[in-house]
C-alpha cells in the first residue's frame, strides 16, 4: 500500500491534464511539488509512469494500468460527495414530528398547513403514535420533536426531555341528545356508571387520566364499549349506545349542532398539551421554525 494517498491524487491530475504545470494549477501547488510527488510514487511502485512525447506527458503501459484503476476510484469519490451533499440537502429539508390525532384538532393542523405553504419543498413526516411510542422515537432520534397531551404528573417522569406547556384541554362526558338523560342535572360519578359507557382502550394517557379520576373518587371505570379511537367513541355515542368520554375538541361541532350534549358531572382533571424535544438535541433551521409556530399557536381552546 502506498504510504501517502495524496500521491494518487497528483498522479490522477497529471494523467488527466497530460501536464505537470496544469496539474499543479488544478491542485493549487507548485509544479516542482507535483514532479516530486510523482517521482516518489514511481519509486514506491518500482516503475515509470510517465514519459515525454514532444511537449506532452504521456502514460507508460504501467501508467495506463494504474490510471484506469485510479480514475475509477476518483469517480467513486466524486459520486459519494454528490450523494452526501444530496443526502444532507434532503435531511435539512425533512422534518419528522410526532403528533396525536387529538392535537391536530386543537389548531395544529392549520399550523402545519401554513408552514407547508411557506415551504412547499419541505418533506414533513408526521407520526401519530401513543405517548410511550413518541417518547421512544424521540430518544432514538426518529422524530425531531413531538406534541403530547398528557397529565402534568406524567410529564414529570421524563427527566431527559424538554417539556414546554402549550395549553390545557378538557375531557368531557357526552350523550346523544335523544338519549333519556336529564342534561340539566349534575350526575354523581356513581350514578353515571349506571349507564352504558364508551371509551378508548387503557393503552393511552387519556384512559390513564380517566381511570385515575374514578379511582380517586373510590370507583372503578370499566367501559361497556372499548373502542380503538375517539372518532369511534363519538359515533357510538351519537347512535345512543351509551355515555361517551372524550376530549372536547372531538365533540364541539356536534354539540353546536345539538346532536349530542354534555353530561354534567364533577370535572375531569385537565390534561396539558406539551411540545417535547430532547434536552441535549438542539433544533435548527426549518425544524426550529415549525417548533416556534406550534409554540406561538393562539391559545383559543
TrEMBL record:
Keywords (A to Z) from UniProt: DNA-binding, Transcription, Transcription regulation
Domain called HTH lysR-type: residue spans: 14-60
Gene3D superfamilies: 3.40.190.290, Winged helix-like DNA-binding domain superfamily/Winged helix DNA-binding domain (1.10.10.10)
Matches recorded under InterPro entries: LysR_HTH_N, LysR_subst-bd, WH-like_DNA-bd_sf, WH_DNA-bd_sf
Superkingdom of source: Bacteria
MF (Gene Ontology): DNA-binding transcription factor activity; transcription cis-regulatory region binding
One Pfam assignment: LysR_substrate
Family according to the record: Belongs to the LysR transcriptional regulatory family.
Protein name: HTH lysR-type domain-containing protein
Taxonomy of the source species: Bacteria, Bacillati, Bacillota, Clostridia, Lachnospirales
